[in-house]
């Protein structure tokens, strides 16, 4: 086993990559700050969008780590570090959520006690939707994710040195605990940060909808990073195109899953035609929102579906890179479609443009995290007992 | 006998998946084309080792999947929005979101079935019950725990000695020459076969007969007379008054049975206005109903000269000044109420038919007393018709 690991030479990511990430993050911080002083209300909605973007990448990747362990998958072992790096934003989520917690009144209708006092529906929901409980949930959810991220990566890194097989079985047990917890916490996070923007509305599938989008976003980051890193020679030289195929197949599966869930949510509400549910879609059918609603079908489903449909496309590095970036864009569009229709304040053109800086900053942060993680740890889990089997994975 | 057998190919057995991959690679590199590999389970990496081109099965799946989607959508479009449009749940006739699940199901159904059937028929050449590698030791081994490669004799580079040597070099556990099975001609009308056919047919039909008529006897369906509904004009203990038939709710009117305001009154105080425009359809209806119900007494043209003339109190002409100067509502009143010997026709004619008759009577009256202008008009019409 060990002679394979000797082939792996650790290389650091170029400093140009770090500088680019730093520039993007600075652009994000500066643009975001200007935007915040120009129009705080619009800025905080755009900030929430970027925050959800980071969160979906992080928690989707964390889910994929635990999925690998619990399913006993070995094809993804050679690239597990890439998945772990993608999840590394999780410890920072609690810090990043502070601006949201400080601006609850701007974002969330239900946080105004005077509004709740005259609204029977909101009164019924107030035991759950109140500021104190919201803050508690945020802390608990991010603490659970942070704990499991810490445990998974700690064991994984330790294994690089000790090559102890027991650490894998510990992580398998942790994953079995994490997956049901993930189902609950991801739903809670989706409901708290996005569904409660429109507190009168409800959809039981909303948590699953967020889950499908977040795993898709995480997979896109992982796919893009894997292809780029392998092209640069940072990953194990024994990796082959067959590993790409599995990533492509997962991307394809989750594109379908997202379409299935999104359609299920729409069709049931459309068919039942109850006014307490339909208004949410009607708000996204008004004015120019109709174009985004319709574009979502094409951008988030039809295009990636057609790109990834054939077997050769799932192994083609160019097509995979395109599909990954495209899906990331589609995910941002999806979040935009979910969050921004609830913004009813004044918007101005400069601030709309500056709103992009939040996403740019988020991308810069992900790049920096990749750089520093790659500096500290190996890009391949060299101590993992499944590594050789994973490297020999063939279709 | 052995010498006459035709050779199908030379097969070799290997012990491990690694050695079969190596063997497949070597055989491919040596330039052999007509060969196949048989393994007890899918060996990963075999496609690449054999340099197989991408399977064309995907195109079958795609074609039939798209066909399924098109069939489902067109079928639902035709039935639900063209041929028999029905409003369901207040949705449009072409309720696209509601059609998606069915379209998806049919797409998947046709795609999967066509994949399996296409694979078996086009790619496996089914039915082929007499493939030469059936019933060989080679096949028995590779379907348990051995890995085999078989080079066919049709290959241009086929040479038994060379291939045996190649297999031996690769570390084959055993090699075997596979022959085509001898062709055996069997006549269809062989007595044995015919007897078997007759015996099978009589057993199957006998068992079916005994089973259906003796063991599983089902009584004929003869209880259609007994139904748990209330018959017309019969009692029912369901209501307190024991009446099976109910009077309508107060203040309600059955469709098409609008009550007539002047029923039983001799002369209507204010005759109803005619709600029907004498359109072509209306007059055709009026003519038909007039000829059925009115003409036996009043005559085909309202002259009161029917074949009952002389046997009956003389039916009045409809061309009297009185009848012509009556309003439409007066004629309607007589149809509904009757007059003198004439009974009410309210139960035979519905509201539209009564007014249609009134309109038709107006036509008859105008024809009988045509003005000069009318005659000019009719002449013009007839000239037009002739010239046409």
Question: What is the secondary structure topology, with strand pairs?
Answer:
The complex is a heterodimer of chains A (395) and B (388).
Chain A: H1 2-6, H2 15-38, H3 40-71, H4 80-86, H5 90-96, H6 98-102, H7 104-107, H8 113-117, H9 120-125, H10 131-162, H11 165-193, H12 206-231, H13 241-272, H14 275-283, H15 289-308, H16 311-315, H17 317-339, H18 349-354, H19 356-376, H20 387-391
Chain B: E1 7-14, H1 17-29, E2 35-38, H2 46-49, H3 57-83, H4 96-123, H5 137-142, E3 147-152, H6 160-170, E4 174-179, H7 191-215, H8 280-298, H9 321-325, H10 328-337, H11 351-368, H12 372-387
Antiparallel strand pairs in B: 1-3, 1-4, 2-3
Helix pairs in contact in B: 3-4, 8-11, 10-11
* SSE series of chain B: EHEHHHHEHEHHHHHH
Biggest sheet strand line-up of chain B:
2-3-1-4
Structural class of the secondary elements of chain A?
Answer: mainly alpha
Oligomer: heterodimer
Low-confidence stretches of chain B: none
Structural class of chain B: alpha+beta
Distance between the termini of chain A: 22 Å
The 3D shape of chain A can be described as: globular
Average of the residue pLDDT scores of chain A: 92
């Amino acid at each position: 086993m060990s002679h394979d690991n000797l082939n792996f030479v650790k290389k650091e990511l170029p400093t140009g990559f770090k500088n680019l990430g730093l520039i993007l993050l600075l652009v994000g911080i500066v643009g975001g700050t200007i935007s915040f002083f120009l129009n705080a209300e619009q800025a905080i909605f755009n900030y929430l969008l970027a925050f959800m973007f980071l969160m979906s990448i992080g928690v989707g990747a964390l889910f994929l780590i635990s999925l690998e362990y619990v399913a006993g998958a070995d094809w993804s072992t050679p690239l597990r570090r890439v998945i772990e790096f993608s999840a590394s934003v999780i410890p920072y989520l609690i810090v990043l959520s502070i601006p949201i917690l400080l601006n609850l009144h701007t974002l969330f209708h239900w946080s105004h006690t005077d509004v709740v006092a005259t609204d029977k529906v909101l009164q019924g929901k107030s035991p759950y939707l109140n500021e104190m409980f919201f803050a508690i949930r945020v802390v608990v959810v991010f603490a659970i994710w942070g704990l499991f991220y810490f445990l998974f990566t700690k064991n994984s890194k330790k294994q690089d040195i000790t090559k102890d097989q027991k650490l894998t079985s510990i992580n398998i047990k942790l994953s079995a605990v994490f997956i049901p917890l993930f189902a609950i916490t991801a739903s809670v996070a989706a409901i708290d940060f996005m569904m409660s923007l429109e507190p009168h509305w409800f959809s039981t599938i909303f948590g699953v909808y967020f889950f499908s989008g977040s795993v898709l976003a995480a997979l896109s980051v992982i796919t893009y990073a894997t292809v780029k890193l392998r092209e640069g020679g940072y990953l194990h030289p024994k990796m082959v195109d067959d590993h790409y195929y599995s990533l492509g197949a997962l991307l394809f599966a989750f594109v379908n899953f997202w379409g299935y869930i999104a359609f299920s949510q729409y069709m049931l509400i459309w068919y039942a035609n109850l006014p307490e549910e339909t208004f949410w879609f009607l708000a996204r059918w008004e004015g120019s929102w109709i174009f985004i609603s319709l574009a979502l079908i094409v951008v988030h489903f039809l295009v990636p579906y057609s790109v990834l449909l054939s077997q050769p496309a799932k192994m083609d590095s160019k097509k995979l890179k395109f599909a990954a970036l495209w899906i990331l864009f589609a995910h941002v569009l999806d979040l935009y479609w979910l969050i921004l229709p609830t913004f009813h304040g004044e918007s101005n053109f400069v601030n709309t443009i500056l709103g992009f800086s939040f996403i740019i900053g988020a991308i810069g942060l992900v790049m920096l995290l990749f750089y520093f993680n790659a500096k500290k740890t190996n890009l391949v889990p060299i101590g993992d007992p499944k590594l050789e089997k994973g490297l020999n994975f063939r279709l | 006998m052995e010498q006459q057998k035709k050779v199908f190919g030379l097969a070799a057995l290997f012990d491990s998946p690694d050695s079969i991959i190596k063997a497949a690679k070597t055989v491919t590199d040596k330039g052999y084309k007509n060969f196949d590999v048989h393994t007890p389970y899918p060996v990963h990496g075999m496609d690449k080792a054999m340099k197989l081109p991408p399977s064309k099965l995907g195109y079958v799946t795609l074609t039939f999947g798209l066909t399924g989607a098109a069939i489902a959508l067109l079928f639902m479009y035709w039935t639900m929005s063209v041929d028999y449009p029905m409003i369901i749940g207040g949705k449009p006739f072409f309720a696209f979101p509601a059609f998606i699940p069915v379209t998806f199901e049919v797409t998947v159904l046709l795609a999967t079935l066509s994949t399996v059937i296409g694979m078996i028929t086009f790619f496996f050449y089914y039915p082929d019950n007499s493939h030469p590698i059936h019933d060989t030791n080679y096949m028995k081994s590779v379907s348990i725990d051995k890995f085999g490669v078989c080079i066919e004799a049709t290959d241009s580079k086929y040479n038994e000695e060379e291939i045996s040597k190649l297999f031996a070099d690769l570390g084959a556990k055993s090699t075997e020459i596979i022959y085509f099975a001898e062709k055996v001609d069997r006549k269809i009308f062989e007595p044995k076969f015919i007897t078997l056919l007759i015996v099978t047919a009589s057993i199957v039909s006998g068992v079916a007969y005994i089973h259906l008529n003796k063991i599983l006897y089902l009584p004929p369906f003869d209880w259609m007379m007994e139904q748990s509904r209330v018959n017309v004009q019969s009692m029912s203990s369901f209501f307190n008054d024991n009446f099976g038939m109910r009077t309508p709710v107060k203040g309600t009117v059955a469709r098409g049975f609008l009550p007539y305001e002047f029923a039983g009154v001799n002369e209507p105080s204010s005759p109803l206005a005619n709600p029907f425009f004498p359109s072509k359809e209306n007059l055709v209806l009026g003519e038909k109903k007039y000829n059925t119900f009115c003409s036996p007494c009043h005559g085909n043209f309202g002259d009161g000269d029917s074949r009952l003339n002389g046997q009956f109190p003389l039916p009045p002409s409809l061309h009297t000044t009185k009848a012509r100067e009556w309003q439409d509502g007066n004629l309607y009143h007589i149809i509904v109420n009757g007059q003198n010997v004439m009974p009410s026709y309210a139960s035979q004619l519905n509201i539209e038919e009564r007014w249609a008759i009134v309109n038709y009577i107006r036509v008859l009256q105008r024809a009988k007393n045509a003005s000069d202008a009318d005659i000019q008009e009719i002449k013009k019409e007839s000239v037009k018709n002739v010239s046409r």
